[in-house]
């Protein structure tokens, strides 16, 4: 009986840890998108002769730009955490949770940074997304 109580408690902590990791993934993915767009500003002005020189110049521009690289590395850290969390998380819950919450975080972050997020339709979309994620979590 004591073992079962401890096992149930451990499983709740594991599920809570997975949920926290998935929310962190959504925050990392969602919050970095607007910063990546800002960091990539000016990329279209990079011009070189030939496709290979153009590609290398663009890689150099982005790779040496800390305004792009910091959010890029944080985004990739979120991808690594997602991959590690998938080993124990329910896939049918993890993917919609991360992707939908990342969309909301992207819209909120973009709005904070002054981007146009679409007004009432965007707000309605965020509300429907939250409702859908709530239904997914409740159904699991």
Structure description:
With 140 residues, this protein is mainly α. Helix content is 81%, strand content 0%. It has 5 helices and no strands. It has helices spanning 2-39, 51-63, 66-86, 91-112, 120-139. Helix 1 packs antiparallel against helix 3 and helix 4 (91-112) packs antiparallel against helix 5 (120-139). The protein starts with a helix and ends with a helix. Residues 6-11 have low confidence and may be disordered.
Characteristics:
140 residues; 5 helices; 0% strand; 81% helix; mainly alpha
Radius of gyration: 20 Å
What string, H for helix and E for strand, traces the elements in order? HHHHH
For this structure, the quaternary state is: single chain
Low-confidence stretches: 6-11
Instruction: State the helicity in percent bands.
Output: over 70%
Main beta sheet: none
How much strand content do the residues show? under 5%
Structural class: mainly alpha
Provide the fold topology.
Layout: H1 2-39, H2 51-63, H3 66-86, H4 91-112, H5 120-139
Helix pairs in contact: 1-3, 1-4, 4-5
Summarize the structure.
The chain has about 140 residues and is an all-alpha fold.
């Amino acid at each position: 009986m004591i073992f079962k109580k401890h096992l149930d408690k451990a499983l709740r902590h594991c599920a809570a840890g997975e949920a926290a990791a998935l929310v962190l993934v959504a925050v990392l993915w969602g919050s970095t998108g607007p910063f990546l767009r800002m960091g990539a500003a000016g990329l279209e002005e990079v011009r070189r002769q030939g496709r290979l020189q153009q590609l290398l110049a663009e890689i150099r521009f982005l790779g040496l730009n800390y305004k792009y690289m910091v959010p890029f590395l944080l985004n990739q850290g979120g991808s690594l955490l997602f991959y590690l969390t998938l080993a124990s998380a329910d896939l049918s819950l993890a993917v919609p949770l991360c992707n939908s919450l990342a969309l909301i975080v992207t819209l909120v972050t973009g709005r904070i940074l002054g981007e146009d997020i679409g007004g009432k339709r965007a707000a309605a979309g965020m509300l429907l997304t939250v409702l859908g994620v709530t239904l997914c979590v409740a159904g699991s």
